[in-house]
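call fold(seq) -> tokens
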Amino acid sequence: MERFFKYILPLLISIVAAVEFYQVLMRYVFELPVMGLDELLIYPTLWLYLLGSVNAAREDTQIKANVLDVFLKTDKSKLAVRVVADIMSVVVSIWLTYWAWDYFVYAKTVWKESPTLYIPTFWAECSLFIGLVLMTFYSGWYMLTNMRRLATFPAPVKES
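ret:
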């Protein structure tokens, strides 16, 4: 998976940057607006956003505010708080994935098209469900990993 993200994320951001550059160049330098570029840009932008989030979940590098770590003294208590946070993340991810599934089914059923280019919007809309499924998977993975670490955490050594 690391190889996939290593290549797809830079490719998507390059596409977004190139299309935006082209649009700015055409609109403001040549004063020739190109119709449909905004529509076309939605596809790589949504996939970039969701796959970037999946990559952060995969690497466990999401932005976190570990405020309680300042007040906790032991590594075990910090790990216990992390497990609670992981459980809440998984619960919220499952809930959001459930709603994204409903939206996925709706988008597939309705099969809307973009107004100018007539591209099926399903290909952008499905990124939400796919991204949330993967984020839920990785969140669950780290939750189980941290639960195992907490269960096997060494007991403190008592001095005699």
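Residues 2-151 form one domain.
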